[in-house]
Amino acid sequence: MSRSALPRALRSTVIAAALSVIPAQTLMGSVLAGASTVVKVNGTDLFCPFDTPDAGGHLFAITRDRSDDQGFAFVDLIVEPTDPTAPVLVGGMDDPALAPTGMQQTFDVANDSTGEVVGTATVAASFTGTGAFRARRIYQDAVQMGIFEDLDVMGSLTVATATVTYTFDLAGCDAGTQDRLDQAHHPSGPKPGSTAPSNDAPAGATGVSIGTQMQQWTGAASIDAEAPCVIGEGDDAFEFGLGRTVWFSIVGTGGPITVDPRGSDFDTVISAYRSVASGLSEVGCVDDDQLGQAQGLLTFDTTAGATYLIQVGGVIGQFDGDPEDPQWGRLRLRIS
Asked: How many Å apart are CA 167 and CA 81, to the nearest integer?
């Protein structure tokens, strides 16, 4: 299937998955024992959301060269005009001319409803490095480490059809390069476990308070999460997959509360909720933090005396294992 033929919902999933390996700050943690495989990975990525008076949408491009011959490279584009009578435009291609120094590429765009090619998109962008740094990330069954660099972007995207031309400024887009090693572990143990924890569901939430520090094994928790995690707002909102979750409750202080899972040995997802007549109302959710750490902190505002429920679980998908199995392991939690 060509990239331009990807449904919009699938594009969002592809982009979210690819962005999960964008630069991270150093994070120390334990490493699982057992047999392992090591893959060398390098590449460049570019992500440009845009919102102008004429149109919104995004441009996403990525290259990943891998020593296991499982590399990939593509560019994906969607343009959503503000004029409701104008067609949504999509485009893309494999193996774009994307490099650490920039991107110069022209490719076809099509009417999203009919699939008919109606014009072209031209990317003319240059990148400037901001300084390389070393990083290390911990997952349940893998460690990722290498050299990363964020890139400043200058340039433009021009999308032209027979009837209209859209021009987008690419300054301020997110871009980066990476040269890393992925070490995937295949341990013989530990196993998830068979006895579900007492706080496997909201009704059994463990009470915590400011200053709480604790550890918990999450492997025997139910695979499916009891409540969704929605990240983003409005048209940019999407549901992020998580599972094997455990629950906690806390009474609001009238100020912000931070849930910190750093030191956990798997890729965590945290969401917080208020209980309302219709069920649970989310007040916040986070996967990785803004620095790219796989154990992101969640901070949310609270009302004094109100009770909040916190759900903590693992990202769906093992780094080098079952793509449907949520990550699990030793959860370390601090409340502040």
From this structure: 12
Beta bridge partners of 157: 123, 168
Whether 309 contacts 272, CB under 8 Å: yes
Q: With beta carbons less than 8 A apart as the criterion, state whether 295 and 177 touch.
A: no
Instruction: Specify burial of residue 34 (Cβ count, 10 A radius: 0-12, 13-18, 19+).
Output: exposed
Q: State if pTM tops 0.70.
A: no
- Residues with Cβ within 8 Å of 108's Cβ and at least 6 positions away in sequence, in order, are 4, 91, 93, 117, 119, 120, 121
Q: Please, which residues bridge with residue 183 across strands? A: 38, 143
| Nearest-angstrom CA–CA distance, 321 and 158 | 40
Q: Which domains does the chain have, with CATH numbers?
A: 3-186 (no CATH), 202-335 (2.60.120.380)
Three-state secondary-structure class, residue 266: coil
What are the respective helix, strand and coil percentages of the chain, to the nearest 5? 5, 55, 40
Per-residue pLDDT tens digits for 17-75: 444 443 333 233 333 344 578 889 999 999 999 999 999 999 999 999 999 899 999 99
